[in-house]
From TrEMBL:
Keywords: Coiled coil, Glycosyltransferase, Transferase
Matches recorded under CDD domains: GT1_Gtf-like
Principal EC category: transferase
The EC number(s) this enzyme carries: 2.4.1.-
One example GO MF annotation: UDP-glucosyltransferase activity
Domain Glycosyltransferase N-terminal: residue ranges: 15-252
Source organism of the structure: Rhynchospora pubera
Protein name as catalogued: Glycosyltransferase
Gene3D superfamilies according to UniProt: Glycogen Phosphorylase B
Protein family membership: Belongs to the UDP-glycosyltransferase family.
Amino acid sequence: MTLPMTCLSDKKAHFVLIPLVAQGYLIPMTDLALLLAERGVHVSLIITPINATRIRPIVQRSIETNLPIQFVELKFPCAQIGLPDECENFDLIDGSYFLPFYGVYNLLRDPLEQYLLAHQIPPSCIISDGCNPWTAEVARRLCIPRLVFHGPSGLFALCNYNISKHKILHHLTDYSEQFVVPDMPLTLRFTKANAPNFFSAPGWEKLRDDAFESERTADAIVLNTFEDLERQFIELYEKVIGKKVWTVGPLNLYNKDEYSKSLRGNKLGAEKQEIVFNWLDLHTPKSVLYVSFGSLTRKNALQLRELGSGLEAANKPFIWVLKDAEITPEVDRWLSDDFEKRVQQKGLICRGWAPQLAILSHPSVGGFMTHCGWNSILESISLGVPMITWPHFSDQFTNEKLVVDVLGLGVSLGTETVCWMPAADDKTIWVHRDDIEKAVQKLMGEEEEAKAMRRKVADMADNAKKAMEMAGSSYDNITQLIESIML
Ligand code: UDP
């Protein structure tokens, strides 16, 4: 394979990438690591043993093709917070462990430093996730630049910066009180509960302030987005933060062949691809709705049944992904004895991890009901699939506003309430079947509004592809980013 080498000085480039141990971060940063390695940069991707196991075929392939990338497995000492050793990913733990989980990171500092000091190529920079403020000290001690990689959109980064600067979350005590994000070119209303900030929940204040400080003191910012998608927000963010913002996405477009797409994030996806594709091949172009809510959010049994009833009533073909953690014995009985039999002509249930990127790339898929995780949105947009939006927590409410209100690429289900990991006996229904039915019919129907959305998202998909191709904005940004570090 001929690698497009970036013109570097004689110094060897060694980039150290440190994602958060959550699928929404590991996946795009693995893409970035592979992409940088293909451009001739030596990359150390810091992961943990369980997360490495999930992507073993990708690791194996990069060894076989001599890509200059090392997947560095640092043990994540979960036992320190009373969790079994294998719980190395946010999708393996209960929400009550999330905050202590961040604390475990501090224990990676010494092993990471030892690895970097012993490496034959001195590190040139660290690119670490915005939720990993502990890496600031490592970069300081090693005297190397540190870039913050933000998982979500430019709009989120800008809103987050402005509300942090004005200390809006410090001042609000009521979690349901509305506020308008300051210094924005459009009016965006949130509550403290669904604010554009990862750490707005009670008890998370220190992490919130550390993350803001680590962004403020970073040498530059890296965003998984592209200029044509949200130019005005990226430019404003760069202006207010006063440092270079490199847009390098959509990173999912790094994966070109079907096998890479279905392996992405978890090799289990590749095992399901044949069944899913055989089913999709039976359907006409753009007729199928893909329903999936990322790697973390869960629904209670009643909400799952309500969603199922809405999908059934809408009478459009669908693939619905249910997480293992959601399939309680009660849900399993309902699915196997009742729902799956009733909808078998129309619907395919995918249990556990699905090959999402491969599914969204299939020509039969014409809509995506999503929780608005930023990766899911970028994947949908870059593959030309319009969306039904159902945000659950965190950046998802901001991402929804970008998709629906700013870009006009989706239909909202209208929920503003944070709900993402309900207790097993929770009986709340957040979104009702009639609303689901109406949204599906609207998105998958033939009204002018739906057709316009399809045209717009197809245009944006073209822009996304151009951004990642040679001479495209994200391609050039990656070149310049590497050069800026190696000057
Ligand atoms: N994903 C997948 N299969 C699944 C669930 C999720 O491939 O069954 C991938 C999805 O394509 C995306 C990532 O996991 O790349 C989820 O990231 P996102 O930002 O959308 O949501 P999060 O999981 O962080 O809430």
